[in-house]
Amino acid sequence: MKYMQILSLPKAIKILKIILWLIPVFLFIWIMNKHFVPSGKLEIIYQVDKENKLVKNFASKETERLIGTKNKPGDKDYFQIITASPVYFDVKVPRSFQKANVTLKYQNPDNQPLVQLGIKQANSAFYNINMAYLNPILENLPDYWDKIQEGNVILWQKNTKYFEEKKAKQDEYDKYKKELDNWKEEELNSLNKEFGINNTNQNILDTEKEKDFEYKKALIEVKYQQQLRINTEKNKIKERPEPKFSSIEEFLANLPEINKIVQYNYNLSNYIELPNYQKSYKTTEIYKSIRGIHDIYTYIGRDEDLNFTFTIQDINRHEGADPFIISIYNNQGVKVKEQTVPDDGDIKADGKVSSERIMQILMEKIPIGTYQFVIDTNDDIFIKDIITFQHLLIFKGNIYLTDNDEYKDILDEKKLEPTTIYTNSNSIRTRTSHDKGLQKIEIETGGKIKYLDIDVKHVLKELNNLYNITKIISPKNDVYIEGDGYFSFEKDQMFEPSFNTVASLDNVKDIETYDFIIANYPQAKLEGDWLVTSASVSTPYLYLYKNTDLLVNFIISLPGLPENDRILKIKEVDITFEKEPITIKNFISKFKNWLNKNIKLL
Amino acid sequence: MSFNNRIKKEKLIYFSTEIISEIFKISLISYLFFYLIESFKTDFISDYFNLSILLITAILSGIFTVLFKKETDEKEEKQIIRLKDYIFIIILGLIAAGIIYYKIKGLGWLSYIISAISGVIVILLSILLLNETNEDDQRSED
C-alpha cells in the first residue's frame, strides 16, 4: 500500500496516454480524409507486388490466356510480365471525380510501339488515350534532325547543310593531319640517322650529343603542334546554324512545301489553305435535278460558314421508306454533322409525288478545309436544286442527271435542257433506265469530240483515255454517269479535295526525302531503369460505374503485343483523381448535398 | 533486493500495467467504433486500414491487462447506481435497437419488433448486471 502511495501517476503516463488516444483519432481523420478528399486529390498507387484493395482485376480478365506473372520473390524489382492486351484494372473510388491522371511505370524490352489508356464508357466501349509511342524511325533519326518539342507535339527539321560542311571540314582536317604525321615521322627518322640512332642502340649518345638530339627532337614536336593548331583553327566548324523554324507555331503559320513534310499521329490539313482560293460573295445555284446517292465535296476557306440548301422531292416509285440523310465529314474523316429529312409518310410504290421539302445545313465558324457530304438515300429521292455560298463543289464517283421527260410529273413545267458537266476522270461509264433516256453523249476531251452512244437500256457504256478536264454534254439527261474522278456542273467549281494531304510516316519509304516531320508523339521518360508515362482523362470520359462500389474501369491497351510475341513489364500504376477541393465557401453547400444524399439512402 | 530496486520494479510494473490497459481500452473502443462504421458502410474502414490489427492488439493487451491487474488491483470504490447510469443504459439500448433495425430493415414489419425487443433486452440486461455487481459488492462487504 505504501508503495502505491509513493507511486503517484507520473506525468509521462498521462502524456503517453494522450498520445495513445490520439493514434485512433488521427487514424479516423486519415480515413475520413481518404473518403471525403477535402484537398480535392486522391492518389491510389498499385504496385504489382502489393495488394491494393482499391485496385481490382489487374491483368486478370482473360483467364484462358496467360496474361502475366510476377517475377520471383527476392528479386529487387518486382514487375508483372504482360503478354496479352488489353490489361484490365478497375479502381474503386469513394466518390466522383472530375479528372484522373494515370501514370504507368514500365519496361519495354521488345519495343512495343504504342501504349494506350482506355476508360470504359456508359455504352461499354472504351475511350482510348495514347500514353506513349515508340516509333523506330523517329527514335533513330540522325543527329542532323533538329528537334523542337511543345507538349506532346514534336517538330523535327533536317539540318543537313551544317553536317555536310562539318563532314567536309573533318575530312580536310584528317587529310592534313595525316600529311603532318608523315612529315613528323620523316623528320624524326632523319634526326635519328643524323645521330646514328636505331632501335637497338638508343642510349649510346654522350651527354652533349643527347642534349642536342633532344633539342632538335623538341623543335620538330613544337613545329608539329604549331601546324596542328593551325590546321584545327582552319577547319574549325562554325556554330550549328539555327533551324528554319524556331517554334511549332511559326512552322504551322508558314508551312513549307507539302511534299517536304511528313506527319505522324498529327493532322496538318487544317493548316493548309487551298492556293489562290477566294471567298465568294454570291450564291452558287444548281438547278439541275439529280437523284439518289451522291458524294459531294466542297472547300471552306478562312472566315467562311458552311451553308447549303437542298430542295428534295419523293417520287415513291419503290416500296419502303425514303429518308434523306446527309452526313458531313471533315478533313480527318470525322463525322461533324448529320441531318435527316424523314420519309414523306408514303412507303408504298404508288408513284405519288410528294411536295418539295427543304433541308438547310448551316455550320458556322468551322475550321478551314475540305468537307464531304455523304448523301444517303435511294433513287426515289430527287434533289431538285442545291443553293450554297460555296463556289467549289464537286461530285465524287458518280452523278445521276434526271431533267428528262420521263419525270415530267415531278419536274412540272421545268424547261428540259441538255446538261453540261465536267470531270477529271480518266474513264467514264454511262447508262440509262428508260427509253426516253437513250441518247448520244457528247464528250470533249483533249481537244477532240467523241460520242458515247447509249442505245440500250441498263447497259453501261464506257469511254477511256480521257485527258485532264473533260466536258460532257447530255442532250436528254436521265443518265447515270460514273467515273474514277470528280464531276462538277461548272469548270471553275472543280478542285482537288486531297490538295492538303500530307504524307504519313507509316507510308514513307525514305525519310531522307523529306525536310520536316511533325508528330503528336507522347513519349515515356526514363527514370532509373523504368519508363514512366502518364495520361489524363476528364469528365465526361471519366465515367464512374455504380454497383455496390463506385468503379472506374481502365484498360492498358497494347496493340500488336501478343501477335508479335512482345512483352511489357509493368511495375506500378499510379492513379491520381482530382475534384473541386472543399473550402470554407463551398463546405456548407457540399455538406447539405451529402446529408440529403445519405438521408435518402437511409 | 534493495528497497530502491523494489520501488523501481514496482514503478515499472505499474507503468506497464497502466499503458497496456490503456492500449486495451483504446484498441477495443477503436475496434468497436470502426466496426460499427464498417457495419453501416461496408469497406469504409477496411479499404484503407486492416481492422484485424486493432482486434489482435485488443486481444493481446487484454490478456496482459488481466494478468497484470491481479498483482496491482486495489479494491475499487463501491459504486452507487445513479439516475444518470439508467439514462446512459437507456441511450445505449436505443442505439443498439437502432443499429439492429438498420441491419435487418429488409425484413419489413418484423424488423420493428425484433429491434424493439433487442433494445429492451439490452436495457434490462445492463440494469440487471449493474444491480448484480452492486449486490456482490455488498455481500462481500458483509
Write a brief caption for the model.
The complex is a heterodimer of chains A (602) and B (142). With 602 residues, chain A is α+β, with helices and mostly antiparallel strands.
Task: Explain what the structure shows.
The complex is a heterodimer of chains A (602) and B (142). Chain A is an alpha+beta fold. Helix content of chain A is 21%, strand content 34%. In chain A, strands 13, 15, 16, 18, 20, 21, 22, 23, 24, 25, 26 and 27 form a 12-stranded antiparallel beta sheet that branches. In chain A, strands 1, 3, 5, 30, 31 and 34 form a 6-stranded antiparallel beta sheet that branches. In chain A, strands 2, 4, 6, 7, 32 and 33 form a 6-stranded antiparallel beta sheet that branches. In chain A, helix 4 packs antiparallel against helix 5. The radius of gyration of chain A is 39 Å and the shape is flat. With 142 residues, chain B is mainly alpha-helical. Chain B folds into 2 domains: 1-74; 77-135, no CATH class. Chain B has helices spanning 3-40, 51-72, 83-104, 109-141. Chain B starts with a helix and ends with a helix. The A-B interface holds A 3-4, 6-7, 9-10, 12-13, 16-17, 20-21, 23-24, 27-28, 30-31, 34-35, 53-54, 92, 94, 548-549, 602 and B 6-7, 10-11, 14-15, 18-19, 22-23, 26, 29-30, 33-34, 42-49, 72, 74, 102.
